[in-house]
Automatic annotation (TrEMBL), chain A:
InterPro entries: ABC_transp_permease (IPR001851). It comes from Nocardioides psychrotolerans. This is Ribose transport system permease protein. GO terms for molecular function: transmembrane transporter activity. Residues 1-18 have a biased composition (Polar residues). Residues 21-33 have a biased composition (Basic and acidic residues). Keywords: Cell inner membrane, Cell membrane, Membrane, Transmembrane, Transmembrane helix, Transport. Residues 1-33 are annotated as: Disordered. The chain crosses the membrane at residues 51-70, 82-104, 124-143, 155-174, 194-215, 246-267, 326-342. The keyword Transmembrane applies. It is a multi-pass membrane protein.
UniProtKB/TrEMBL annotation, chain B:
It comes from Nocardioides psychrotolerans. This is Ribose transport system ATP-binding protein. The keyword Transferase does not apply. Pfam families: ABC_tran (PF00005). Keywords: ATP-binding, Nucleotide-binding, Repeat, Transport. Coiled coil: none annotated. Residues 10-245, 256-498 form the ABC transporter domain. InterPro entries: AAA+_ATPase, ABC_carbohydrate_import_ATPase, ABC_transporter-like_ATP-bd, ABC_transporter-like_CS, P-loop_NTPase. It comes from the Bacteria. SUPFAM superfamilies: P-loop containing nucleoside triphosphate hydrolases.
Amino acid sequence: MSITNPTGRETTPVTDASSDGADRAHRPHRPEGRSLQGAALTVFRAIPGPLIGLVAVMVALSFMSPFFLTQQNLTNIVSQNSDIGIMAVGACLVILIGGIDLSVGSTLALSLMTSAWLFRQQGLPFTLCVVAGLLVGALVGLVNGVLSTYGRIQPFVATLATMSAGAGLALWLTDGNPINGFPGWYLALAGNKIAGIPLQAFILVGTYLLAAFWLRFRPSGRALYAVGGNAEVARLSGLNVTRIKIGVYMVAGVLAAVAGTIVGSRLDSAQPTAGTADLLNVIAVVVIGGASLSGGSGNMLNTFIGLMIIGVLNNGMSLLNVSPNLQPVVIGAAIIVAVLTDRGSRARILQS
Amino acid sequence: MVEHPTDEGLVCRGLVKTYSGVSVLKSVDFHVRPGTVVGLIGENGAGKSTLSSVITGVVQRDGGEMLLDGRPYEPGSPSEALHAGVVLIHQEIRLLPDLSVAENIYLGRLPSRGGRIDRSRMHRDAAEVLGLLGVDLDPRRPVRGLSMARQQEIEIAKALSRNPAYVIFDEPSASLGETETEHVLERIQNLRSLNTGVVYISHRLDEVLEVSDEIVCLRDGARVAHWPSGDVARTELVNAMVGREFTYEHVAPQPSRADTVLEVRGLSSRGKFTDIDFTVAAGEVLGIAGLVGAGRTEVVRAIAGVDRPDTGEVLVDGQRLRPGSPQCAIKAGVVMVPEDRKGQGLNLNRTAAENLALPWEKSLSKLGMVTRRTIARLAAEQRERLDIRGDMHLPVKSMSGGNQQKVLIGKWLVRDPRVLIVDEPTRGVDVGAKMAIYEIIRGLAAQGLAVIVVSSELEEVLGLSHRVVVLARGQQQGVLTREEATPQRVMELAFAGSGDGPLPSEQPSAPLLQSADATSGV
């Protein structure tokens, strides 16, 4: 650094002159000499709030059902929720920058139907069709991004429009009919296991790790917190806010398409209505994970825990024969509990 | 003045207030009589706001007693204080822009008749209150589009409509320019003539001197000085506030060097400013003076690439900057400390360290990764260099205004800039931090930076700058050297062209209405 401290000499007298105690009240008070208690508190605070909830639910369910805590059941929970989990990564990124993406479910359906339609009706090689599906996801994201930045349409409204249009196009492609009969290797995506763990669980966890790394270490990922926290500060700091926003919507679109690929493989069928019911679950995952819809806060670890809470609750209720009609009620309650406890713990941290 | 019995008015004796073990008020005595204005001064953290909060029932005292016209006065909440006739006017204006002036004045207690709002009575009453204050304003018009000074006047009218016996102003001028402040001060004179007791809290000593009948100074929660008249030398006030001898006069800056770093040629933006032309040399501090709404901030925003000007160009070392791109300006070494610290400068919920690193993350990354250690090292460097007090790894909002401002300045010094623009660099910071910031600015110029200072405080611009550009209604009125730039000369130019003639281009858009209002002398 070539500029040295310009204040050094000049400000010292200010501190000296006030050594009569005048300045003491301004200094932050740091607790000292309570290191053990302090350390325990720090560890306790470092535990993400949603994790405590997840452990509590899992402990309760393992007492209530003998089938819950088996390896088979736990891997099931992870793989059954891999599509929602992958979409939640995209949704979390969008929510981080202070946006919202209502079109995830429709994007899933549209990209899946595009892949299937190109394969069945146009006879293209299947790999190419999958790539085309991902491109469709990116395209929907691009439209969302451009509408909400250059078009200055609120993201809720912009993605509401693409949600409607995407769902319609998915139905229109095949007149509402499903498409079946895919290559064997594609079906293996959902069915195959490596070391007893389904391939789709690997894809799910890999997506989270990649996103977490991006958000934590890469300048472009870290920028999302700045954009979501205060877009004007970010812009004046030289970040290209428009490009970042559009990029995030495109990533969300591609991730929805990836989720579509998994759904198609799992069902061995491309349904034009696949994914359209997932939207609220996806947003619930992100919110239970503690992200704020006003942007700027949230992370991948907590989103993953949020996914597991929803997955475990649904799985547990099925094991306990709770009526499927009542299950959304419990999810609704979980959202409220998560948000209230999160707010409580935040207030405590601020106070200390 | 007539002799008053000692228990008349609002009397506080031995007030004590403690926040989590720290005494912020240590046995403070305070007395306001009806029909007088008491100026309350002190550095940030001296206890002024706490005192006003105790008096208006926002917080409860921990000791001492209060009497209102001889009777015990114990407000448990702001509304109890209101009922007793004690009103607080906040620093921040809190009006609802889409409601009318009258609705804002009577919000929460709209007069009604037969279950319906009695609009004619509301408008009549509002007009009467505004008339008492000498404010010429249609009570039916919405608040949106009115200048800050006008809005502050509505706040005063709102307070007055409750027929208060005592009004406490907590830095009403913080967001106002000099002429606008004049108007508020006149309103205070009106309140005094209505036999209201007024407490006036401000950082701007000239205002306090102008308006006060007596002045009280707090330091570290204790009353350290009291002057029974408003006729005091300002150095005496400053010395009492900081508790030591203080030379308030700015030190004469060093002469500037010859090589031009920044050149602004024919910069114009429709409805904001026209034909701005100047250069800044390495090591030079250029001041931009003018009334609020003269286009000062707009000009520097265009230079820093934040807004795109319509015509004209900005050159750094002879290279033309791409207009409207903060990225491009930052890359060329043109950085700006914006006037709105909270809205444009810092993300208050993130840590100081993260804020410092934000513009530079790409260049800080190794193998494409930014690590916590890199950021911590950077934060430690800036903390040391700018003498920032406070934890760099806590949210910036935990710091005092002065330290936040230092973080904001430090953010733009991480990579040595060529041109540093500071817009209102000492808004809302206390005297000590103010002096430190002046030293930082002088030090940076001495090291060869070209510096532009924009400020509403004339003294600040004149004290720091080698040359001063004066703007009035978006027009450059002249560039004065340090010798020419007397306060009289600058104000003369700043008022040139005000009051008559249209704006530089034909029609003002919405935000402009505000500045037009502000300059035309309301």
